[in-house]
Design brief:
Length: about 500
Amino acid sequence: MNVAEAFVATAPLSHHSLLIFLLQLTVLLALALALGKLAVRIGLPSVVGELLAGVLLGPSLLGDIAPDFSGWLLPTAPDQMHLLDAVGQMGVILLVGLTGLEMDMRMVRRRGATAARISAAGLLLPVGLGIGAGLLLPGSLLGEDADRHVFALFLGVAMGVSAIPVAAKILLDMRLLHRNVGQLILASATVDDAVGWSLLSVVSAMATTGVRGGDIAWPVISLLSVVLVAFLLGRPLARIAIAAGGLAREETGSAAGPGPAAAGVSDRVDPAAGPSAAAPPAASTSAEHGTASASAAGPPAVPRIPIPAGSGGGASGIAVVVLFIFAAAAGTHALRLEAILGAFVAGILLGSAPNLDSRRLEPLRLVVMGVLAPIFFASAGLRIDLTALAEAKVALAAVVILSLAVIGKFAGAYLGARISRLGHWEALSLGAGLNARGVIEIVVAGTGLRLGVLSTAMYTVIVLVAIVTSIMTPPILRATMRRVEQTAQERLRELDLVGQPAGLR
């Protein structure tokens, strides 16, 4: 049977299934946008409100007070759930791709030694604590038939990651982008992200293949292959894709600007680049998501220039970027690694290309951050069951995991900063900034639940840790940064920021 015959033989989506699917998208998106805006108004990342939308519609509230209506709107039939899951998976792949696109690898290289020490210590300690906790937690928190060692590794990865999207948004809101500590938080979080996605792919592969010696070797070899292919072929392919999509910067001077095409927050505030490089990004829709989504608008003195329709790099350019991200995601998934690793690598390759005019990708950012990401996070919230916390051992596990996650990240980052000869309060500030887990930990938790490694109760605990650490970061960071004296160079950068056009402040 060929593809055409299969389409004819397969029953089309029923009227009722399509109706339910469209209603699910409508209700989830409407509630996610409303609660996301409310979260931003009270000083929280909008992802908190979007997750809450799913929580309210899930078993924690609607499923408890109106089970019949909940069962009608959100039926548990696999065919129906797969429709919503497919939209969510597409959203998270593009979200992670855009996150990679915003990475500034040049800044990581410039601040590499210090960032590497801080990131290494800030990863090793919480990952170790997470693995230890995973080996000791009650078996009821594991997914059905999950291997205890894989569960422990998953928990370690979840506790070790930091979220550069949330960190960047917090630094932007608190006007700390011009501070040296802010630079190091972003650089270290970038390293955390890269290592975290790699670890997640390896552990996910172990969840499907097992933990025997040969089974462990395969994901490691696959990961090394991805790195090699990205290094040898990825960069030229990214440049070709950018040129083919009409996304290259025009060689006319002012509109292009130096640096990576998708430099994001960190590139324009790197101290090594001097005061003129200190302009912060525009607080766009994606920044409200707690995502490092500032579009690279070129040199600080040049405001964002609208790209008229038909000027190149429009729909075809966005399609090329999506194609590049999807192809990379499919490649890593074919190697039994997580698809999001391929998306992340593709984003880094595109963002590091010197010829990309990132402004032309703004429509894609708006669709992903304004539509697909809220649906993904609201769908993730549907899986949270707060009623599980009524069970004593689950509540105790939540307290233990949260405590270990916070202590591990703070102590690890503090140790790495002190080894790098930073002061006491600077080191505490780094610990506070890197403590925010946010989006990254939510994706890790969702992956663990999908693979059957985590139970619903454990998934709920990990997502709550992501939310709580993101909420607690701003007040702690504000308190510690008051003790860090501003340098003359930082004051010059701050003055330079004040002089920028309003759209770039």
